[in-house]
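Researcher: Please translate sequence to structure tokens.
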Amino acid sequence: MEKIASFTVDHIRLTPGIYVSRKDHVGAEIVTTFDLRMTSPNDEPVMNTAEVHTIEHLGATFLRNHREFSERTIYFGPMGCRTGFYLLLAGDYESKDIVPLITELFEFIRDYRGEVPGAAAKDCGNYLDINLDMANYLANRYLENTLYGIDEAHLNYPA
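Model: Translation complete:
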């Protein structure tokens, strides 16, 4: 069996950033999948499920309500390895095109206080696995260490 594209990325050299993981043609449309890498794979601890789950709830809520990207958002969710998230957008994008959106998204998560949307038994299958404080912390870490000073090296997968 052939390796899928995401398993051909050199995860030893991969650092936090915003990367185009793939572009798929769906009929006449293009769907761009982004790799929002928040931690260095195999180098630093992965995120725990509670904060990943919280970021997922807040991120999906933010994106589905965004004034410009609500209709273009197909999916936002965690990577199984817990080092980041995938964002699927309808349209043909490059990483640099969404830096303002991702910065706005993670500022929202960093600053969010109160009840996490969907964190109730009737809304979620694992509503008790939520950690807002750590989600705030990790969002701030991603902003400060990656997004605010992002450069080309963190917008394109390592060669």
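Researcher: Any highlights?
Model: Residues 49-64 form the longest helix (16 residues).
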